[in-house]
Amino acid sequence: MILVTGATGFLGAELAKELVSRGNNIRCTKRASSTIPHILIPYSAKIEWVTADLMDTYSLEEALEGVSQVYNCAAFVSLKQADKEQMIKTNITGTATLVDLCNDAGIRMVHTSSVAAVGEAKPGELITEKHHLDPTTETDGYAISKLESEMEVWRGIAEGLDAVIVNPTIIIGASAGIEGSGQIFETVRKGLKYYTRGSIGFVDVNDVAKCMIALMESGISAERFIISAENRNYKQLFEEIAQCMGVKAPATLAKPWMMEIAWRGAAFWGMITGKAPAIDKTSAKAASNTRNFDNSKIKKAIGFEFRPVSKTIKEICAALNHRIRIIG
After folding, report:
1. Second label for 57, Cα 20 to 30 Å away, from 30, 125, 216, 268?
2. C-alpha span between 129 and 134 (Å, rounded)
3. Pfam families, per this entry (predicted)?
4. Stated pTM of the model
5. What's the helix, strand, coil split of the chain in %, to 5?
């Protein structure tokens, strides 16, 4: 039996869909309050849903009964400063519990981390799996939670766990809608006026799922892999999205001091409304940073060729335009 944790999320749902489309009957975890993603409804006969939480050892033990492979996609994600400590605690503790249970039962794991947990390269160099985040200087709660969760997996590996770690860049895909990375497309569609100098890697959600499955089936263990299709600067990305959406591309450079004002204003508005800020301090800083990633390790390990980002962008834009026509 194959178990997918976090299967109600963007990546987890796509991974579950890919697994069942290959003829697998799988088990997926969800919280009691979670809704089954619409992309998985057609596959309900092949998916056994169980209510489980990474913070609940007993529910996890039940979910793992008869399981030989685990894809861990579950994580608590929040931009709210008030959630920082709880997010770190939840992600680390939950991962540690799952690691221990899998190790005790001899279950193989593919753990989803993030490039947020990968360090920086020297100027002009690509970031590789050998770069590691410095926990003594990092202040971003999400990055810390991902790094420390990854460390729990490495601890498990040192204790005998059969596991591999993936570090995806920005995951995009039509099934995101206007949430998560889908907000980028929706923001451009609504008339984004500014762009930043930064760059980062992007990858199709289905490619991430395929890489995870290939790694699970490869037998590779005790390794981490950056999962990224292409590095894109934000200006180029916004222009391409704008062209697909038939809107005007952002034409004004947002300088660092402008981003400083933006995140402070968003934080103030978040305090008043109680909602997560549209941009936080870390996101504002990252938008002007150049973070280009080397994907050669994963390509060599499993012989994988990534889908061009431009194709995914066109697919997402088409889906959003269709959604707009339906809603009116």
Report:
1. 216
2. 14
3. Epimerase (PF01370)
4. 0.91
5. 50, 15, 35
